[in-house]
């Protein structure tokens, strides 16, 4: 069934989320639609728009009141609703009265909008949905058909049967009700939809998604517990699964035990970013020297514990020997925790040797994997999989996020124009430019050979160790993709794909770039490279169908 709005940015309860999902999966008759008021801000509600759901079907309109949690009614007739936190809310007016009053308010509103003659023959009924309650208290005047309880909400099919039963009950109440034709359903839909669907500003939508991501990273702390009880863990996961977050927490906890802890990773920018959160706990950051394939560390330093992030860049025998030299009891007998991405990030910086990885895996106490993506929206994950074939986990966010925007240009001037246009669009949507990062696949000098027009020429700056934790107000950071490893940004625009050829090194680079975006991703592709992009899409689709 078509559900409006199709995307809800902030479900207030698990019951709302469940019903929205079930209705979306339901097979509805042609023209059937469910209108949900969830995205409406409080000041936008009309009297009849306090209805949770309005279902439009050929047999008429159903007004649904949704009550999640456990529901009961005491001897004095007071309704009690227990929420998911165990808190009990009491009300004298029950859900049946609310749904019934909603029905009459809706009929009056439609009569006013369309005229009584167009509404008189339309069956309008009401019902209450209790997704979490098996035995619902029933009043003598409440028809059994109007109660949709937990067993009815088990699957989309059981819900469909319950709604059909409810529609039949009300439709058969009056002899002059008749089934609605397609154009009538469409007219009702278009009349009601503006009151049920509003589109929040892009910045508000992204903020909602981002807050959800931040809260969901707590689920990754089970890995922290494993590290707490072990000498050595090897944790793998695709980009966005929370490896760096968990690695930092593991490092802080190990330091809290009185150990001297080194946090090792590649990338000066990432080092500057994480050091701010690690230094207060006494954790020391050591950077991988990519050019010399060693560690930027004075000789003779010894640590009690090593926590290695982006470890795929260090899975080679030379660096494992380096770890042995700085770790108490050596790499084979010492205390270490490795976090790595088995996908396309290895080889972008540093070097990777498969037998070194196998050795590390064999001597670890536990090899664990993060499978849930807590950084990227489903749209960004899908785009990454289609272009790179990488498995970066399943998004924690169901159906949320903005569509990935891919646009073509013919020449540098065209690219420059699209960059400015996208930045202006984001500005109009209330986006703080400090939350935007332009990532380039080429060097900074090669990115905009013609420069940017007007004031934008001075509003783009190269991201550095000094600005990674303190972005410039009203300005946009520009960074090479390879230097942005480990970091992330709410809004990402990818440019500089003139040399993209589909080879593994380019796939690794674009994989890293795509997965840096939290909630909004824009990719600018030269016209001449679009056929190659299309080939990658086709190859991906063929691989999942094989």
Structure description:
It is a single chain. This protein is an alpha/beta fold and 546 residues long. The chain folds into 3 domains: 197 residues, no CATH class; 162 residues, Rossmann fold, CATH 3.40.50.300; 168 residues, 3-Layer(aba) Sandwich (Rossmann fold), CATH 3.40.50.300. 36% of the residues lie in helices and 21% in strands. It is built from 17 helices and 24 strands. The strands form 5 sheets. Strands 13-12-11-14-15-10-16 form a 7-stranded mixed β-sheet, sandwiched between helices. β1, α1 and β2 form a beta-alpha-beta unit. α13 packs antiparallel against α16 and α13 crosses α17. About 2% of the residues have low confidence.
Summarize the amount of helix as a percent range: 25-40%
Radius of gyration: 28 Å
Flag low-confidence runs.
38-49
Helix-and-strand structural type = alpha/beta
Structurally, the number of domains stands at 3
Number of strands: 24
The 3D shape can be described as globular
For the sheet with most strands, the description reads: 7 strands, mixed
> Roughly how many Å apart are the termini?
30 Å
**What is the residue-averaged pLDDT?**
84
Continuous helix count: 17
Measured by DSSP, the beta-strand proportion falls in 15-25%
Biggest sheet: strand arrangement = 13-12-11-14-15-10-16
